Request: fold
Amino acid sequence: MSDMVENKQIILKEYICQGYAKESDMVTQVSKMSLKVPHGSHGIVVKNLYLSCDPFMRSRMTNSESNFVEAFTPGQPITGYGVAKVLDSGTPNLKKDDLVWGMTGWEEYSLITDTDGLFKIEHTDVPLSYYTGLLGMHGMTAYAGFYEVAAPKKGDYVFVSAAAGAVGQLVGQFAKLLGCYVVGSAGSKEKVDLLKDKFGFDEAFNYKEEEDLAAALKRYFPDGIDVYFENVGGKMLDAVLVNLRLHGRVAVCGMISQYNLEKPEGIHNLMHAFKKRARLEGFIVFDYYHLYPKFLELVLPYIKEGKINYLEDTVEGLESAPAALIGLFSGRNVGKQVVVVARE
Amino acid sequence: MSDMVENKQIILKEYICQGYAKESDMVTQVSKMSLKVPHGSHGIVVKNLYLSCDPFMRSRMTNSESNFVEAFTPGQPITGYGVAKVLDSGTPNLKKDDLVWGMTGWEEYSLITDTDGLFKIEHTDVPLSYYTGLLGMHGMTAYAGFYEVAAPKKGDYVFVSAAAGAVGQLVGQFAKLLGCYVVGSAGSKEKVDLLKDKFGFDEAFNYKEEEDLAAALKRYFPDGIDVYFENVGGKMLDAVLVNLRLHGRVAVCGMISQYNLEKPEGIHNLMHAFKKRARLEGFIVFDYYHLYPKFLELVLPYIKEGKINYLEDTVEGLESAPAALIGLFSGRNVGKQVVVVARE
Reply:
């Protein structure tokens, strides 16, 4: 059969029970697949172009009922956000050569049977890889968490942790565009410089160089924090809680510092926060995708006018994906971690 | 001068740095005072009738900048919520024999210079002592926390801790009147029986008899908790966090289990809750007093129709006040703890 091709895939070997994920938890294999949609299927066959490495993928490597997204299937390719080109389609909404972003496989070609969660890419006058992040799930996460959950006002004092990450860098820029004072934390001098020089944060600091995080925050926010965009959890959250202003808001996007721990660290300062009538709220981007057109309307002009900067950390080739994913947890990436599988 | 009287007072001896408050931290003394408002003052002189003992008073015994209400002044009478009769007035809004509720002193007579925070009692066809609780700060706290913060819907699964307390017993009844399923926790069999038999909770349990609070909650809420009205903090909060339903809401009223601790217990399960897109929000009744007329409109008919039950634990005489206050922290009281200073 002429439409059968070799398909390189990144497979999760087995569930990780505890501790840090390692490259060796994944393996590259080559299988065969057809580039035609099976007869009668409403799915699509795509060629994967760009894949996104994301912290939340760690929790999918463990089979826990507390996951907010389904666990991976051991022996099967890892799945994640990506940009892909339609090769064959069994659904009327998509046709050959359409570009889509959404959940796909960590492999060269994927058969996607559930196409409801995919977004068709309509604007191609921006880099396609942006749809793995800025114009995809991460941009929407920043938008929903900042505008919808944190309910910011002009002049608010805003703190963003993991600020050089895919979501954090956008939250900071949204906050600046709204007229807020914004401080970000990150884990290297390089990232701190980026936050100030490239992303326009008012201040930024390296949390690894601070012995007392609460004191560091007090230094940058002598009058306290109105909005905390939470990406890390643990000690940083505790330090923020004692620095919240009256009616402070914590939009909890993630807690990357906790994902590899068997038992999460204890948080001791909730009472401080609640005495300030603070609100802490977890959110997930899935609940806000109906706002995607509104989001694009806001963000596309900003990108084209250079008012939003965006930094990608790309690695070439599917084989590089496991190391890129693992690197997230030691903060090796600078900017959004993208795997280039193919450019077209 | 004939208008000078002896005035018995409960004095805080000095700030408590750590640990449990004790009766001996307070002392009864007798001073002299005039029953006339000083010339030119806009204050009032009142005779105190009923005083309220409240958990939050513990934090006012420590001079900490993290307090949400001002600390007491050592050497001066303790202050708290009470019902009082106006003996002399320098303000046009209040006249002799008017009844008020609000902040007053733990003494027989008080000169209240700041009358803005007082509420004039307009409805006297209910027991006057109710204005120390059900119709005062506690009722408003239950009302604001439940209706405004927790945003409940008919059919919600509602859990209330310290449910036999002044606020908790009302929250449970509000929830039942709205058509929710309500479970309460308390610290004795007597209180548990009260919750079920007098206050109409669907279920209630003694938290002291549960080795695994999370398992206990799972038993009463097999499908999870929509609304948690938080009065205690610590282990109970952690147990609730793993049992929250999607978009669960925690209205944080207080954390009585933590007030006497030097360092609050660590909370480990926040991530569970945020994965469920839960919202945790601290609130304070002060922010909601503008709703007091609306609250009375709802609650007074319920009281008169017997649809809201209310239980007071009264002690007689100002001298009994310190023991009554300390008793709160060991859960000695059954229902709202009231001190009867005088009945008219």
